[in-house]
Amino acid sequence: MKNDFSIVGVIPARYASERLPHKLLRKICGKTLLQWTWENASSSHMLDRLIIACDHPDVEDVAKEFGAEVINTAVEHFSGTDRLAEAVNDIDTKIVINIQADEPLIHPLIIDNLAQEMLSNPDIVMATVKKKITDDNEINNPNVVKVVCDKSDFAIYFSRFSLPYFRKDTENIQNEKIYYKHLGIYAYNKEFLYVFKNLPKSYLEKAEKLEQLRALEAGYKIKVIETQFDSCGVDTEEDLQQVKRILLKKGNV
C-alpha cells in the first residue's frame, strides 16, 4: 500500500563526478559533503519525506550511516531529474523538490519557501530560486548561472552569461544594475516532472548546458522566488575549500 506524502524532497546523489571525483564522499569538518546537504535539508519544516537517490553502494552505505532514507537508482541516468523521476515513481505525492547533493550550505528556509510557493499556487508546475548577486566576481563567472524574470517573477531566461547586458549608453541606470544568480533547487508538480523529463533536449539547453531551458523553450513557465540566503555549489577543489572556510567561520569544527 502506498503512503500519501504531500511534499517529498529528493537529493539525487551520483557517485561519479568529472571535475572533483567522488565529491559527495569528501569530508568537510568531519562530515561528508552529502551529510552536510542532508542535515540542512532535514531541518526543513515543509518536507514530509526526504530521500537520497543514489547509484553506488559506497554512497548508500555512507548515507545510511548518518540516518538517511535511501533509494537505489540506475547508474545510467544522464541528469538529476532522471534520477529524481525514478526515485518518486511509486510514491504518492503532490510536490517533489529536487535538492542538489553538492549544496552543503543549502538553507532549510529556501526549501520551505519554495514548497510554500507551490502549495499556495497550485497552477504552478515548476519553481526555482534566485538571489541578488552582491559579489561582482560572480557576474561574469560562467559557473554562476544568472536568471532574468518578468514582472510576475516567472523566468524569461537562464544563462551563464551576465544578464542583462548593460550598454555603455545606459549611464542613467548604472546605479540600478541588478543581477540575480540562480540557485539550483527545483520544485515540481509530480505530474509535470514526467512531462518535463520526457521532453526532447532543446537547442538552448544544449547551448548553455542548462536543463531548465528545456521547459522554457517548450513553452512552460517556471516560477522564481527570491531568497536572501546564499548557497555554494561544490564542483571543484577550490569550492570545497571555500565551503570549509565558511563552516569553520561559523564554528563548525
Overview of the structural elements:
The protein is α/β, with parallel strands linked by helices. The protein has one domain (4-249): Spore Coat Polysaccharide Biosynthesis Protein SpsA, Chain A, CATH 3.90.550. It contains 8 helices and 11 strands. The strands form 3 sheets. It has a 7-stranded mixed sheet. A two-stranded antiparallel sheet has the order 2-3. A two-stranded antiparallel sheet has the order 8-9. The radius of gyration is 18 Å and the shape is globular. The N and C termini lie far apart (43 Å).
Number of domains: 1
Element-by-element helix/strand order: EEEHEHEHEHEEEEHHHEH
Chain-averaged pLDDT: 92
CATH architecture: Alpha-Beta Complex
Query: Strand order across the biggest sheet?
Result: 5-4-1-6-10-7-11
CATH superfamily: Spore Coat Polysaccharide Biosynthesis Protein SpsA, Chain A
Question: How many whole angstroms does the radius of gyration measure?
Answer: 18 Å
